[in-house]
Structures are given as C-alpha cells and as structure tokens.
Amino acid sequence: MRAQEVHKFFAVVGSVLCCVLSLSASATAKDATGVPKIQFAELKHDFGAVNQNSELRHTFTFKNAGTGVLRIDTVKTSCGCTAALVSDKELPPGSEGKIEVVFKTGAGSGGRSEKTITVTSNDPEHPTTTLTVSAEIQVMLDLSPNRLLFGQLKKNEQVVRYTGLTGTQKDKVQITSVEGGNEFLKVDLNPQGFENDPQKQVRVTLLPGMKIGRFYERIILHTTHPQIKDLSLYVMGEVLGSIAVTPNFIHFGMFEPGTAVERMVTVRAAGEGKFRILEVRSTVPEVITILETVQPGTEFRIRARLRESFSGEIVRGQLLILTDDKDQPQIEVNIFGRKARKPQSAEVPHKP
Predict the structure, then answer these.
(1) Which is more confident, 36 or 256?
(2) Residue 186 needs a FRET pair 20 to 30 A away by CA distance; which of 46, 166, 206, 264 works?
(3) How many Å apart are CA 138 and CA 149, to the nearest integer?
(4) Phi/psi zone of residue 196: left (φ > 0), alpha (ψ -120 to 50 degrees), beta?
(5) Domains of the chain, residue spans
(6) Is there a contact between 71 and 348 (Cβ–Cβ < 8 Å)?
C-alpha cells in the first residue's frame, strides 16, 4: 500500500512538472515569435535656413515597441545625403536604435532642398519607413548663370556670352584669376561690369578655330572668399560642319548578357556639298559595323551591333567614321553600355 502511495506521489509530481515545462515552453515560443514594431521619435527634421557648402547632421532615434526582435534590413538615401545605422541591426523589445544622417548642401543653387532616407525592417505593419531632412539653402556666392550655352554655331563664328557674381556676399568678393584649358575660349574680367551692366562681370568669347563638333568645357574662377575659393563655369555648344551625325553617341544601355544589341547612326550632308565615307571601324572588337548607302554622296546609315559573345561588364570605346571631307576627315562617335545586373538587397551601412 505504501509503495502505491509513493508511485502515486511521483505521478502527480511528474504531471505538475510537465505542465510547468509546457507553460514555460509556450511562453518562450511566444516571445520568440512575437511581433516587432518600429517607432520613430520623429519622421521629419528641418534644419531651417543654412548657408551653401554646409555639412548638416541629425540623428533619428527609434525604438522597438513590439514584442519580437526588430531587425533593420536596409538604410538607403537620396543623392546628396548619407545615413548610417549607429546601433545594432537587431533590437529586442523595448530597445532603442539610432540613424545618423549627414546632409551636404554643396555649392550649387539655393532654395528649398529636401532629402529622404528609406528604412526597411521586419515590422510586418510598416516594413518601409521614410524619413525626411530639409533645409532652406542660402547662396553666399555663385555665378549667374553658371552655365553658358552657345548653341549651334557655324565654323569660325565668334560669339560672346556673359555671367556675373550672385549671392548674399557677392559685393565683398573679387575674382582674382581664371583657369581654363581651351585656347579658343577667351575669358575677360570687369568688376564694374561690361556694357555698364554690373551683372556682366565675366565675358567669355568663343574664338574662330574651335573644333567641329560638340564642346563642353569647365572654367574655374578663383575668388577672395574665405570659404568658396573657386567657382565653376560650364561652357557648352556645338560647332557645325558640312557633315551631320545623328545621334552623336551610341548608347547600348543596360544590355542582357548573351543578347545582341543594335543601334543605328545616320550620317548626312548638312548643306549642298557631297562627301564619301571611306571607312568605318570600331575601337571595341565586339562591336561590328555595317555601312549602308541611303543617298550616294549625301546620306549614309551605319548599323553598330554588340555581339552576343561579349562577356564584359562595360562596353566603352568609339566608332570612327573616316571621310573625304577636308574639315571632318575623322568623325568620332562615343560608345557606351553596361551589362544588366540582377537586383540585390543592399546591406545596412553600420557605424560602430
């Protein structure tokens, strides 16, 4: 009888232990499979009025207000802004995290500027959160305009364009010197302004002799400003010849590996003269060319085909068109393309 009581006692104790262990396992499983919830203290931050060439910093804080482990998958930003996760990628319930944002205003034009930061996580209700930083950028010093467009010009045509200083501190600054690499672009300075116009402090003259084709030049103006020591002036245009090429750039785009891609270039007489194409060749061996005559002496068509066997990541080179025209004996057409890649999830930038 005593043996039966002992057996019964251990049976009861075993049942109690099983219940306790079962409840504990259930609670552990519930914690392990809880639901994470990302909660930011703020979604937007405005820096207010700031000067150009400023580096602005702000930290967005967030916490895991859920019951499961929160995992930050990616942190991506728009141009002109960087962001880094300065806490752990995985946060248990109740923990806090930080994302540090650096916003560079740059030396460009002023006005309202807004940048976004996209945060993805394993929060099932809000897998994507968008943060915003903004500022009203005040220009201290710049050129207006900072790009001079000469348009399409005849060969040996001389054209003049003007620009001048702008910004809140323009009256306290002087341009001390000019740096440029094109001998056919002459730059003159007049602090009071040319033609009695204070907005025409810089005169750029396109001289006869500029090479036929499109040109894009950068001119650097050195100043006495303590922060903005250099200003960039971009000059662009096109000198027309007797032969016109359309388009003047072969772009294969994002091509799929193992797929042949073809582009077409038209070469025609711009005036009443005639010409012959003597030879067409590509500096890229995998790009083959086919010359077709549309109208003898006035119009031709060139097919440029990227071979299926091309195995590189980037195709870059030139299409060379040799003619009997004395002014355009060789016409160069740039070639570019990039192999398409499968989309991959970006890793979270982490700052220790």
Answers:
(1) 36
(2) 166
(3) 25
(4) left
(5) 1-33, 38-138, 143-239, 243-339
(6) no
Architecture of domain 38-138: Sandwich (2.60)
How many other β-carbons are positioned within 10 Å of the β-carbon of residue 196? 7
Model confidence over 305-339: pLDDT tens digits?
999 999 889 999 999 999 999 989 999 999 999 99
Coil, strand or helix at 171: helix
Question: Which position has the token pair 């945060």?
Answer: 119
Which CA distances in Å does 289 have to 76, 132, 264? 42, 49, 10
The 10s digit of each residue's pLDDT in 13-61 is: 455 444 444 444 333 333 456 999 999 999 999 999 998 888 899 999 9
Residue type, 317: G
What is the SS3 assignment for 137? strand
User: Coil, strand, or helix at residue 82?
Assistant: strand
Does residue 225 come out as left (phi exceeding 0), alpha (psi in the -120 to 50 range) or beta?
beta
Pairing of strands 185-189, 147-153: unpaired
pLDDT bin (cut points 50, 70, 90) of residue 111 is confident
Strand partners, 138: 51
Dihedral Cα 304, 306, 308, 309, nearest 10 deg: 120
Query: Cβ distance 302 to 292 under 8 Å?
Result: yes
Domains 143-239 and 243-339 share a fold: yes
Closest CA to 153 of 93, 74, 212: 212
Distances from the Cα of 294 to the Cα of 188, 273, 302, 304, angstroms: 47, 16, 10, 16
Amino acid in the structure at residue 309: S
Q: C-alpha distances in angstroms, 73 versus 62, 102, 127, 165?
A: 15, 20, 9, 46
Q: Which residues contact 312 (CB under 8 A, 6 or more apart)?
A: 286, 339
Report the top-level CATH class of 243-339: mainly beta
Q: Exposed, middle or buried, 309 (CB in 10 Å: 0-12/13-18/19+)?
A: exposed
CATH 3.40.50.300 fits 143-239, yes or no: no
